[in-house]
Design brief:
There is one protein chain. The protein is of the alpha/beta class. The chain is 41% helix and 14% strand. Helix 3 packs across helix 4. The chain starts with 13 loop residues before the first strand and ends in a 10-residue tail after the last helix. Strands 3-2-1-4-5-6-9 form a seven-stranded parallel sheet, sandwiched between helices. It is globular and about 55 Å long.
Length: 314
């Protein structure tokens, strides 16, 4: 592993929660990027497994615990002054946020509490929610953190390119018949790569002082409809990929249910599909480039790097 110059001296470990998470693996990549900067990292994982072993191999300290168990969070946060708070979409998300905020307040001397949220929260209020229980919890979680008095930074990515909408489901239909089947209509979207999000997080955690109290919203480099998205898949894969607009109910039953997702996550992704059709994901920012110094990853480059996933079925 190459160790780069440390950006900001800290003897305290930086706590990264959700370090072995699933979609996109943002927490895992944050650990790797911080270690490459030579910064001490403590990674909180849910269980000891091969993912934990890979994190340990980077030089990170591993703590096994549950974000909904206060003593586990107290133990994980011991001696930490900078915190990355991330947790997979799940029913106890708000509970975990409240526990983390309470423990951080009790600890004191916190330099930064960097919270990964969602860009949809920026369009929400107490009288204007979405049908996603996850969106509701993330909106309320931001309120709790704002009330806590902690030195908070909110980072709100839009939909991830690693989301099943753009990866698993797209790979399945593209491999089958070179189509992307989604119920987005003419809605536009600007998905962001998890790697870009992780690089933003690591940059903030390395030198947090200038970011405290700010909100960053992360998108890909272009907002476009699904015909445009399909053209990027075509360019990446070297063959014609077309978009097929599917009625929501048909897509829900024929495609989404086949992923066998937990009900909480199923409802969340179904809401994301509805919001795409309502053009609620037509958002574009340049915060990735402003923080990392490089443009956000394009859909074309993202797909090209995973071309094997989209290979035709034999």
């Amino acid at each position: 592993m190459v160790i780069l110059k440390v950006d900001s001296k800290t003897e305290s470990p930086i706590l990264v929660t959700g370090a072995a998470g699933n979609v996109g693996g943002v927490g895992r990549t944050v650990v790797q990027l911080l270690r490459q900067r030579g910064l001490p990292v403590r990674a909180l994982v849910h269980r000891e497994d091969e993912r934990a072993a890979r994190l340990r191999a980077t030089g990170a300290e591993i703590v096994v615990g549950d974000l909904t168990v206060p003593p586990d969070v107290v133990r994980a946060m011991e001696g930490c002054r900078r915190i990355y708070f991330g947790m997979s979409a799940s029913a106890p998300y708000l509970e975990a946020t409240v526990i983390a905020a309470a423990v951080a307040r009790q600890r004191g001397a916190i330099e930064a509490f960097v919270n990964i949220s969602q860009m949809t929260v920026s369009q929400m209020s107490l009288t204007k929610m979405t049908n996603s229980p996850q969106h509701k919890q993330q909106y309320l979680a931001e309120q709790v953190l704002n009330w806590s008095g902690l030195p908070v930074v909110h980072v709100r990515p839009t939909a991830f390119l690693e989301n099943p909408l753009f990866l698993n489901l797209a790979a399945r239909s593209i491999a089958r018949n070179d189509t992307i089947r989604l119920p987005f209509g003419t809605g536009r979207t600007s998905p962001v790569a998890a790697q870009d999000v992780a690089e933003v997080m690591a940059t903030i955690l390395a030198n947090p002082a200038v970011h405290i109290g700010k909100i960053y919203e992360l998108t890909g480099p272009k907002s476009q409809d699904m015909t445009g998205v399909a053209a990027e898949y075509s360019a990446a894969l070297g063959r014609e990929i077309s978009y097929v607009d599917v009625p929501l109910e048909e897509w829900r039953d024929a495609e989404l249910r086949g992923l066998n997702l937990p009900e909480h996550v199923f409802a969340h992704i179904l809401t994301m599909a509805r919001l795409h059709a309502a053009n609620r994901y037509d958002r574009i920012t340049h915060d990735v480039e402003a923080i990392t110094g490089r443009p956000a990853t394009s859909i074309r480059d993202f797909v090209a790097s995973r071309a094997d996933m989209f290979a035709p079925k034999r």
